[in-house]
Amino acid sequence: MFITTILTTFVLVKTLDKYILKSFLVPFLATFFIILFVLVMQTLWLAFDDFAGKGISLIFILKFLWYTTLLVAPQALPIGILLSSIMTLGSLSENYEFAAAKSAGISLQRMVRPLVFFAIFMSAVNFMFLNYVYPYAILKQINLKMNIKKKQPALALVPGSFNTEIPNYQIKFDEKYGEEDNLLKNVLIYDLSAKRGNNKIISAKKGELVSEEGSRYMTLILKNGHFFEHHEKNNSSYKQRQKMPASYADFDEYTINIDISSFAKDDLDDLNYTRNFNMLSLKQLKDTLPTIKLNYDEYVKARAKNLFLNVNAKDLYKYPDSLINSKLSLNLLDNFDLNQKRNIVNTAISKVDRTLNNIKSNKDSFKHKRKVLNLYDIEFYNRVAFSLSCLLLFFIGAPLGSIIRKGGMGLPMILAISIYVLYFFTNTFGRNLAEESSVTALLGSWMAIILMLPLALILTTRATKDKGLFDINGFFKKLIDKFKNLLPKKEKTT
């Protein structure tokens, strides 16, 4: 009899595990592929203007979509687990299936155990994906986008900064507009084709890019502009160059034919960018970080040494008290006459201004080097932290589903989106703080886990004790009891 009971319980539990896994996998696969499709379409919509009507073949657009799918899959996986866990456990609670299992002596922890193992397995899958597939996908996608821009040089030009992709020219403009994004506003061009520096400068209020497929030239038509060229002879000295004449003129229309034949030699599958921080695996990041940190430390030491030499700190000496002249005033300037004071103050102000200007001129370079180091550090820690999001969001979604006791796509969808937005916001916020050196890279990468882990623990505890999400009655009861304890008790009269 005892053996029969054990066998019956074993078969029942095994059947229950299969049933719960099946109930979870069906909505998980459905939600995962729906979310994946939405994320891919969002990325395609943002990049649509770069591909539509640019002569890019369908096979390369499909490659771009494939690489995009690999990139967004690690984001879709946690959302799918969160939503399906709320839906599955909400549906089981709504249909009183959990109550039936509890009446048979099976606890909530035992019922969701197969789902816990599945969440751990998916976290491991997400980690492998982030460590190997994600770097490969971003490597291929970025190189594909850059090679497509080379095939269409007009795509490579971005407003607001000097564009150096086109050989022998530096082009800057304020805005790109028009149906084909080939019209430019407030154009400034440095013509470097003569290999003599920025001796030829052209500015115009408007510009138009004209390029035909297969042509080795791109035509830039400028309107309402100004032309300046500083003439100089080969091997001329600086004083001779100062005496050389310069030519300048205003124009209504000016045409420049730019040779872009070098772009046609590049294949769309070429890999020219391979060392970006998000293109490396954890092992490669670990090997690269020491070199970047060493270069950064050497740069900081060099700037500190330069500052030390500029302020002449090495000329300061500490004299023993026995050598101090008692006739000298402790205020050093009082020991000099007016002209000497003026010279000392002017020299000091000049050195301070020079030092401040030196610091300001190196400020952007310092921030850039620190930011690059932070990006590598953040990527290293975030690979592990983000892979654990599957497990974290499961321990939020599963107890939440059993508490709300509501299945389907309505309320679970709203809760899942709200929770993931909160997780994504805190993760992005932490990474941005770490990027700007406000917090360490380790803390910034794990901030979302640290902030949302208490929520997972609270929900899991309340679901295990079969309590609601908010025990309003219990809360007010405690307040009333505390208030009663503060009041003086009346003595009973006989």
UniProtKB/TrEMBL annotation:
One BP term from GO: lipopolysaccharide transport
For this UniProt record, give its keywords in alphabetical order, as a comma-separated list: Cell membrane, Membrane, Transmembrane, Transmembrane helix
Q: Which GO terms describe its cellular component?
A: ATP-binding cassette (ABC) transporter complex
Whether Flavoprotein counts among this entry's keywords is: no
- Membrane topology value: Multi-pass membrane protein
Tell me where it mainly resides: membrane
The record's subcellular location field reads: Cell membrane
Q: One Pfam family name from the record?
A: LptF_LptG
User: Any transmembrane segments, and where?
Assistant: 24-45, 65-90, 111-134, 380-400, 407-426, 438-459
Query: What name appears for this protein in its UniProt entry?
Result: Lipopolysaccharide export system permease protein
